[in-house]
Amino acid sequence: MEHSELDNKMRILLSAKKLFAKQGYDGTSVRQICEEANANIALVSYHFGGKEKVFEALFLNLFPAKKLLEMNDLLQDPVEGMRTMIHGIIKFTIADKELSDIVQQEIMLESNRMRIVLEFVNPMWSKVKQLLEKGKEEGVFHFTSLPQALLMVINLSLAHKKTCLIEKFFPNDDIIPDILAEQTVEFILRGLGAVER
């Protein structure tokens, strides 16, 4: 693919991501995406085959789960694996707020596109579940119910997405992604009994 074609394709994807996050999938037209991308409307069909394929291409090209799950050395040990996964998830949700917001919208709406979203999201949470199981088997993690432990880990990992609820209490506090990720991981590991208090 020529450089200009690649640029057009990426501009369309980035424009779609921005608009889907802001207006929702159903509230965004192909024409709006192309206007935002400064691209000919025919390029959506040429490169992707329609709006739904643009949506799918966002995840194929921009969702970080594959990179995260390829860190095999770090994912063998339950504690280090949990650190790697949770840190990566938090950093992604802060660094790419638009794509993270799209994930959240589609899951909350239980849209027709939720299947696509879950194809990319579920492997991450499956890995976290495996790490919880392995940690419990090895006596590193201590919890009663695996479903409840996984639910708590998921909720704590994504809790920062609700900062608008506490902004009035901490109006001048900026979230520093690395610090938030480290503190959340430590909080989770303490809750699982893997870090001494």
From TrEMBL:
<dbReference type="GO" id="GO:0006355">
    <property type="term" value="P:regulation of DNA-templated transcription"/>
</dbReference>
<dbReference type="InterPro" id="IPR001647">
    <property type="entry name" value="HTH_TetR"/>
</dbReference>
<feature type="DNA-binding region" description="H-T-H motif">
    <location>
        <begin position="29"/>
        <end position="48"/>
    </location>
</feature>
<dbReference type="InterPro" id="IPR050109">
    <property type="entry name" value="HTH-type_TetR-like_transc_reg"/>
</dbReference>
<dbReference type="InterPro" id="IPR041474">
    <property type="entry name" value="NicS_C"/>
</dbReference>
<dbReference type="Pfam" id="PF17938">
    <property type="entry name" value="TetR_C_29"/>
</dbReference>
<dbReference type="GO" id="GO:0003677">
    <property type="term" value="F:DNA binding"/>
</dbReference>
<dbReference type="InterPro" id="IPR023772">
    <property type="entry name" value="DNA-bd_HTH_TetR-type_CS"/>
</dbReference>
<dbReference type="InterPro" id="IPR009057">
    <property type="entry name" value="Homeodomain-like_sf"/>
</dbReference>
<dbReference type="Pfam" id="PF00440">
    <property type="entry name" value="TetR_N"/>
</dbReference>
<feature type="domain" description="HTH tetR-type">
    <location>
        <begin position="6"/>
        <end position="66"/>
    </location>
</feature>
<keyword id="KW-0238">DNA-binding</keyword>
<protein>
    <submittedName>
        <fullName>TetR family transcriptional regulator</fullName>
    </submittedName>
</protein>
<dbReference type="InterPro" id="IPR036271">
    <property type="entry name" value="Tet_transcr_reg_TetR-rel_C_sf"/>
</dbReference>
